[in-house]
Amino acid sequence: MREWWNWQTRKTKDLVAARLWGFESPLSHTHTMLDLHYLTEHFDEVRQRTALRHVEIDFEELAVLLETRRNLIFQAEAARFEQRQDQERIKAIDKSSPEFLELRNQLRELSTRAKLLDDQRKEVVDTLQQRLLYIPNLVHQSVPQGRDSSDNAVIRVWGAPRQFDFPPRDHVDVGELLGLLDMDRAGKVTGARFAFLKGALARLSHVLVDFMLELHTKQHGYLEILPPFLVNEASMMGTGQLPKFREDSFQVDSYFLVPTAEVPVTNYHRDEILDEERLPIKYVAYSPCFRKEAGSYGIDTRGLIRQHQFEKVELVKFSHPDTSYQELESLVADAERVLQLLGLPYRVVSLCSGDLGFSAAKCYDLEVWIPSQNCYREISSCSNFEAFQARRANIRYRSPDGKPQHLHTLNGSGLAIGRTIVAILENYQNADGSLTIPTALVDRMKTDKLVGPQGA
RNA sequence: GGAGGAGUGGCCGAGUGGUCGAAGGCGCUUGACUCGAAAUCAAGUGUGCUCGUUUGAGCACCGGGGGUUCGAAUCCCUCCUCCUCCGCCA
Predict the structure, then answer these.
(1) Which of residues A35 and A150 earns the better pLDDT score?
(2) Is the CB of A167 under 7 A from strand B?
């Protein structure tokens, strides 16, 4: 616990951050993404399974670090042991005698040597932990192997894309024609990748939030939780956004704007030991999400698909390891239910090994039909992280007879609001520019149709 | 933002330089008693790591980091967090 890594001391940028924000350790424990024992004992297996992701990891260096660590721990502990033995002796000696002075001088040297070994041990452990932070989670056996999104496996398809008897407009045109969407002024007021929603479209946004929250709490057994929208460094570490994806995050002083409610909600139980019988714990949380979308320049620049700020209803589960894959299936089903009730055609794909997110062991994407692009686009991402986040965030459960064990965490969008609006605008548009409101939302929207232009 | 107080094991809470991984209590486990339960009695009950085939042995951990010392839960510095009071504010 104490020898927990000052990983940030290795990176100038992070060192500056550490000073600036006044923290020493973003995490309060030594846990890493990969279990150290498992890594040591299944080294080749980890190497092979990591290779499935097509990421560059220096396993040669890792092997050396593991061996060095083991040796230094052994030596440091031996030195400490010797020191302790002599300390027992000096306690019994008269403090004014010459023997005392002599032994004290010896001990001074011994102490220095032990400290030195201990420092070396710490340094190696720090380096090792630092490296481990950048190793992605192991992929689950059921994940299809592949390089990129073209290798993802379509699991099932729901609904049929609507046949239009007119050329469908994209969501920006539908929204602007209705006078309810203003991308231009968002550019003026803030910049690219922001939007103004107005009137009934703004209403649609929070109606969708309410609709989803009600569905998941009343019918799927989730507890609603409204989290902070700013989180600290340790939380970003806990769920795996940091240290690798710092450039994707917006920061305010020492805080981070949440990229997803997953971060505050998963970290809700950080450093806790939960009773086994409480599992699974299921939360549903609304939050705005802030992402820099670094590296996506030129992609989805038009419209609401890829924004720096969007809203989302997120499902988060804390599961017993034995049942986490059943929980993943039901989580996906819960998210799918939203699309079904909204009458939006979609498909479920299992991400291949090369397309899988850093922290996920397995991930299903829900992709909704987007008429203007004539393809399915991601609207939800449902992942099982197994113990990866639980190790980082130190979230465990205790069985009545056993020791504390890391539990499994899962989460998924249920759903992303912005993209749901995109899907509704496109799939429910009419030739005359009006918009039909999905039946499930008519009561909340107080109307079954939007006719433009409205507002100014 | 200003002033003061506090951070100890699953929980509460003692402990101000070595005899403290840490009293005591609660909780939990096991055993005794009981037809059974409660109550009572007895024993046990932290985490991580290293070595060892096993029994086991060792090291570290009292909010984080650093320092003083032969030796730190205990002394010093620093950071974080929480609480109380004042100020400001949706």
Answers:
(1) A150
(2) no
Region of poorest pLDDT, from A92-96, A137-141, A243-247, A317-321: A92-96
Burial class (CB in 10 A: 0-12, 13-18, 19+), A421: buried
Q: Which nucleotides of B are covered by protein (CB under 7 A)?
A: 10, 18, 28-29, 46-51, 58-66, 70-71, 79-80
Rounded CA–C1' distance between A394 and B46, in angstroms: 16
**Residue A429 DSSP one-character state:** B
Q: Which of A139-153, A232-246, A300-314, A339-353 has the lowest mean pLDDT?
A: A232-246
Q: How many CB atoms lie within 10 A of CB A218?
A: 9
Indicate yes or no: strand B within 7 A of the C-beta of A323: no
Burial class of residue A435, CB neighbours in 10 A (0-12, 13-18, 19+): buried
How far is the C-alpha of A12 from the C-alpha of A18, rounded, in Å? 10
For residue A19, give both structure tokens: 């000073």
Q: Could you read off the pLDDT of A157-208 as tens digits, one per residue?
A: 999 999 999 999 999 999 999 999 999 999 999 999 999 999 999 999 999 9
**Is the ipTM above a cut-off of 0.95?**
no
List beta partners, residue A441.
none
CA of A81 to C1' of B49 (A): 15
What ranges make up the beta strands (E) of A329-407? 346-350, 362-370, 375-384, 395-398, 404-406
CB A163 within 8 A of CB A39: no
Is the distance between the Cβ of A25 and the closest atom of strand B smaller than 7 Å? yes
